[in-house]
Structures are given as structure tokens and as C-alpha cells.
Amino acid sequence: MRVFFIGFGQAGGKLVDMFLAQDRKLGSTSFRGIVINTARTDLMGIKNIPMEDRLLIGQTMVKGHGVGTDNVTGAKVAADEIDTIISAIDRRGTHDIDAFVVCAGLGGGTGSGGSPVLCRHLKRIYREPVYAVGVIPAPEEGRLYSLNAARSLSTLVNEADNVIVFDNSAWKNDGESVKSAYERLNEEIVRRFGVLFRAGEVSKYGVGEMVVDSSEIINTLRGGGISSVGYAISEAIPMAKNGGKSSSKKDNNGGLLSGILGKKEKKAEPHVDIASGEDKSAKIIGLVRRAMLGRLTLPCDYSTAERALVLVAGPPSELDRKGVEKSKSWVEENIAGVEVRGGDYPVDSGYVAAVVLLATIGDAPRIRELMELAKEAKEEVVRSRERSHTAMFEDGVDPLFE
Ligand SMILES: Nc1nc2c(ncn2[C@@H]2O[C@H](COP(=O)(O)OP(=O)(O)OP(=O)(O)O)[C@@H](O)[C@H]2O)c(=O)[nH]1
Fold first, then answer.
1. Among 157-166, 204-213, 331-340, which is the least confidently predicted range?
2. What is its biological role (predicted)?
3. Nearest CA to ligand 1 atom 6
4. Which is the closest atom of ligand 1 to the Cα of 189?
5. Counting Cβ atoms within 10 Å, is residue 51 exposed (0-12), middle (13-18) or buried (19+)?
6. Which residue, by CA, sits nearest to atom 12 of ligand 1?
7. Is residue 168 part of an annotated ligand binding site?
8. Would you list the domain boundaries of the chain?
């Protein structure tokens, strides 16, 4: 899929920076994008995006210093400067893209407030679908961040065609602060979503037996709402099986796709031994099961998903049509809906990876928690307004006739 990424705010900007770096590393031109921020210093921290594609907004209001976790101001700045934003997007070129993907951390101010506004305008102006990748904060970041995320997310689900969520709290290790984990978490995000969004592009390593095209990704996400992604990676494929390409010498991360499919990790991902000589399709089914049953970008009840997409990426010698078909049937038996699409994506890698997109999920505990928190906060505001109103009356002051 040809994707136009827009990174809104600091987290969004860093993610888009990494998506574009990944694309460049692959020698691909599937991804392009711009980054937007209200803080000048955050834009300066971007590494791979040319200066002309870094847009500073809100200069009159916040003078390049950011909106300081105030997402109402974030939304206002975006609305006031929407024409400047759309011009920057048009300048970068949109004629051949399949979708827009707006990335943002939803707990802050700029991305949290700005991304729903941007999604609304993108949908109004362009025909292509508009997806959001929303990072939700860990509870330890504080109540304000959770409230911002709840508010942003409930708007975003109405403005974007689908919101694919990554939950920081589910991904940080025990004892690790969220901030110190950012770099690692961003790699996890870009690895999963990179395979997903790139599916349907012709790979220079050939055409898979069951090619997924961009319309299948779009149809999977069509139901809207919130989606989550699962991922699993095999053990390293021995050199002989991989046409001598498993590049443990030149690159211990699995060939050209180093950092893209990833490498064996100690505890984050479940692994299957692809090299054991067992039946190829059984191994693919095993990988797909582990992707769906393992840690999802947003932990949720997978059985409530309305649609799913199964992608298997790896060297052509390890891809197997029957395995993908059987995996799709297994996913179909385990989710609420019956629409399960899937295919393979040949790449030069020392690993096989499975990505399962669970679209339009019905239940995720962290989302429920955020919504309840927002409801409580709203009730608190109403109560405190009533209290101050009563107090003023007790003092004999009627605010209306003061
Ligand atoms: N995974 C991940 N999450 C991040 C990262 N940076 C920030 N976040 C998350 O995103 C939320 C918003 O942070 P920022 O992106 O810095 O906020 P912003 O949109 O720039 O808004 P302001 O700084 O308030 O103007 C934080 O509360 C974190 O939950 C990152 O690099 N990776």
C-alpha cells in the first residue's frame, strides 16, 4: 500500500521518521510523509525528514514552545492552520497514494488535539481512506494524559476510518519507565505496522503465491472503530534454506529486513522453529496462532474482532499457500466476524513473520478504563460547577444578575 504518513506531535513525528527510514532502508518508495508540531525543538529532533516537510504550527498562539499537554489548544491550533497543513501535504504529493495514516501520541496536547481535526479535514478533501495510529499513555504518566487520550480517542473514532491503537503500558517492561522505553516501543510499532502497511506492494524478491493488495487492507479496516495488531517471528532460518541469505555475519538481525521483521527477542515475542524440517504450513499456522494469542498492540478480546487480515512475510522458500489458507480458517473460527483476508509477502529475511490485524474490536480493558475515567472526570466537573453555583447562591450572589 502506498501510504502518506502524517506525524502529529512528538510521538507521531518520531514514528513517521522511523517509518520513512525503514522504507528508505528497503529501497522502497511506498511511504512518504510530513511531520507537524507546535514545538520547534521537537521538529529539530527529527532525523530522516527534510526540513521542508517539517511543519511548525501555532506560532502566533504558542510561539514555537508547544501546547504543554493542553489538547484543546492543540485542536484549536490545528483547526486554525488547517489550510497550511493541507498545502504542505499537497506539496509533498498525494496523487498516487492508497491511504493516509496519521500517527500521534494521544496523551499529550499537539497530537492528541490535532489529529482528530486533521483526520476530519483529510476525509473531507481526499477520497483515500484516513487511518490513525494512536499511542495511548500508561496510567503511570498521570491522570491528565489518560484524560487527554480518552477525549482524543473518542473523537478520533468518529473522524478516522479506523484507529489502530498501541498501548504503551502493555509494552513497557516491569520497572522500566515509559520514557526510557520509547525507542524500543517505537521499533515495535514500526516493525508491525511497517509490514502491515507495506503489504500489497510488489516486493523485489518476487510476488507471493497469495498476494494481498491494498484493497484488502482497506476492506479489513472498513468497519471503523478501534483495531489491534498481533505479531510473531520465527527462529532464524538456516543459511542453506534461505538461499544463503540469512545474514548472521553481515547483519545479525535477519538480512535486508533487519529491524523490519525484527530478530529473535528474549521475551517480547513467541517464536516457532521454522528450521526444524516440519511441515511448512504447520509452521505458518503456528506463527499465526502465536501472533494472535500473544501480546497485541492493544490487548483486547480478539474474539470480538469483526474482521481480520493475516500476513505472512519471509523468504519465498518458506512461504506456503496452504499454511496461509489454514491460518485464515483458524482466525475465522476464533473471531466474531467471518471476513478474514490474507496473503504472503516475499522479503529477503532470515526470519518469517506473521502479522494479524484484528479490526473493529468490541472489547479492550484499557479502552474501557480510559472511557470510565473520562466519564468520572466529566461528572466531577458537573458536580463542582453545581457546588460553586450553590455556594454563590448561599452567599446571596446570583451569577446571572451580578
Ligand atoms: N510509544 C511512544 N510513545 C510516546 C513517545 N513520545 C511520547 N509518547 C506518548 O505520547 C504522549 C504524548 O506525548 P507527545 O507526543 O510528546 O505530545 P505532543 O503531541 O507533542 O503534545 P505536547 O508536547 O503536549 O505539545 C505521551 O503521553 C506518551 O504516552 C514515543 O517516542 N514513543
1. 204-213
2. Involved in cell shape control.
3. 11
4. 1
5. exposed
6. 108
7. yes
8. 3-198, 225-359, 370-396
Residues with CB under 6 A from ligand 1: 9-11, 14, 38-39, 42, 66-69, 105, 107-112, 135, 137, 141, 145, 168, 182, 185-186
pLDDT band at 377 (very low <50, low <70, confident <90, very high): confident
Whether 248 and 233 have beta carbons less than 8 Å apart is answered as no
Distance 217 CA to ligand 1 centre (A): 27
Q: Annotated binding residue at 380?
A: no
Question: Which of 38, 115, 135 is the pocket-test mutation for ligand 1 (most atoms within 8 Å of CB)?
Answer: 135
Residue whose CA is at the smallest distance from ligand 1 atom 28: 137
Distances from the Cα of 150 to the Cα of 173, 367, 370, angstroms = 23, 8, 5
Can you spell out the DSSP letters for 356-382? EEEES-S--HHHHHHHHHHHHHHHHHH
Helix 143-159 / helix 365-394 crossing angle, nearest 10 deg: 110
Residue 10, annotated ligand binder? yes
**Residue 296: which residues within 8 A CB-CB, separation 6 or more?**
170, 228, 229, 230, 302, 358
- The answer to whether 244 is annotated as binding is no
Q: State yes or no: pLDDT of 213 exceeds 80.
A: yes
| 55: CB partners within 8 A, 6+ apart | 34, 35, 36, 37, 43, 84, 85, 88
CATH number of 225-359: 3.30.1330.20
Residue type, 317: S
Q: Which architecture does CATH list for 3-198?
A: 3-Layer(aba) Sandwich (3.40)
Query: What is the pLDDT averaged over residues 290-314?
Result: 96
12 is in an annotated binding site: yes
Residue 182 CA to ligand 1 center (angstroms) comes to 9
Atom of ligand 1 lying closest to residue 171 CA: 1
Confidence at 394, pLDDT banded by 50, 70, 90:
low
- ipTM exceeds 0.90: yes
